[in-house]
What we know:
The complex is a heterodimer of chains A (151) and B (349). Chain A is of the alpha+beta class. Chain A is 46% helix and 23% strand. Chain B folds into 2 domains: 25-213, Cytochrome c-like domain (Cytochrome Bc1 Complex, Chain D, domain 2), CATH 1.10.760; 225-348, 2-Layer Sandwich (TATA-Binding Protein). Chain B has helices at 2-22, 26-33, 35-38, 53-58, 61-70, 85-96, 115-125, 127-130, 160-165, 168-177, 194-206, 234-247, 280-289, 320-324, 330-348; strands at 225-229, 251-257, 272-278, 299-306, 309-315.
Amino acid sequence: MKSRFFWHAVILGLLFLPGLPVIAEDLLMARVPMTFPEAMLKLQSTLKKYNHTLSRVQRVDIGLTAKGYKTDKYRIVFYGQADEIRQLADEYPQLIPYLPHKIAIFAEEEETMLVAVNPEMLFQADDPNLQAIMKKWHNDLQLIFKDMRQE
Amino acid sequence: MLCRALLLLGLSITAITSQAAASKSGEELYRQHCAACHGYDGNGGVGVPLTLPDFQYSVTNNYLKATIRHGRPGRVMPAFPSLSNADIKALVKYIRRWAPGKPFRYPVTPVLGDAKHGQQLYQQHCMACHGPLGEGGKGTGLTFSRPRDLPIIAPALNNPGFLKAASDQFIKATLMNGREGTPMVSFLKQGLKEQDINDLVVYVRSFEQNPLPKEQKPLEAKEATIAFESSYDLKTTIANLKDAAIGNNFIIIREQTLDEGLVEAGKENPQQHIIYFCNFGFLNQALAIDPRVGLFLPCRITVVEKDGKVMVYALNPSRLSPLFNNSELNKLCHEMNDTYVSIIEDATL
């Protein structure tokens, strides 16, 4: 008897634990109400805030401009936690092309756009361990995007 | 006792947090899910403007709800299957703040007319903007893709999401009144008769019967990763891949380890090696169609040696077009797919 009530209570509590809503979006997008240079700085500090290391910034616009194409500011920001990335690449090689994590950041006039893929949609795995990893990866992205939208 | 207390605790947490979830305001939802494309002020961007009075007063709440729920498959506007009905209601309420007042209500009667004549009129008056099959203009909204010949790109009319959301009478009202402030003018003022407009509505409705042409269909989702085992050692595989990329008109732009920048310099793992290569003409073309694909460009192949095996990994471009919900990317994704496979096969077999 006791255990039944107990588990009901726990399960109910868990079900409605506050957290970010689970929305099955394929892509995460955010419009950052800042110019590109401001948004870039803020992204760097936001990644740090969530304990991620920025490993590299790929300057897509510079490459294009050098080849004579016109483009607005466009970068890809790579980030992660060294141990986590090493472990993921080791245990789940199918993730390798998507590691380290990345966010595209580009100017749209006076504002800046962020785009990242929702890993939970990309890898719909049965493996509960992998599911948990994807959930964390997605959750971190949601937190980063939320901060970037200045909410 | 204990279990009662726990049950109550559980219930009260439930009550508190579900209240919190329900109180997620329309504004919050809009900022999170819509503003990236339609702008914080609703004036449009990747998506069309949502603020224009002629738009607001001509659409019903059901049209807005259905559009959010089903999106516009293959036309960038995502479907939101996992938003609750309450969320969608809150969103609609928020969108309605931009034009207070009562939206138009339509009779549910279907519009009757002559589809053949409608087709002729369509070719004369609509095709230039909405495309020969009603597939919409190239690009979307206000800012998506270049070059742009209209301030707002005409939406797709043969889109299953649009046809599901739009009633006959709504389409008719749009044609009769036009939308001031957009390239969509009133065709009554252009000299068409009401019966002509009825014929056009019947023709637009008939798009429902035609299956979407292949190039407009969203691609089926596949495995996210392409993986090949190489028959060579790490060094040879890397050299082969570079040769093969160059042979396919790419420039090698960068090589690095997977963990570069994450671990201390000198401590990187050389057995996970990334090669970046690019064809700038292709990159420019891809970004012009959908700037978001930069997320997966320039091209990248990763070579990994583990337990004496050499593996080659790349993302699967065919998986990307459905992710972006943009069928204009289909062709590009196929091309990219073929390129990856041919480079990797050249290098590993």
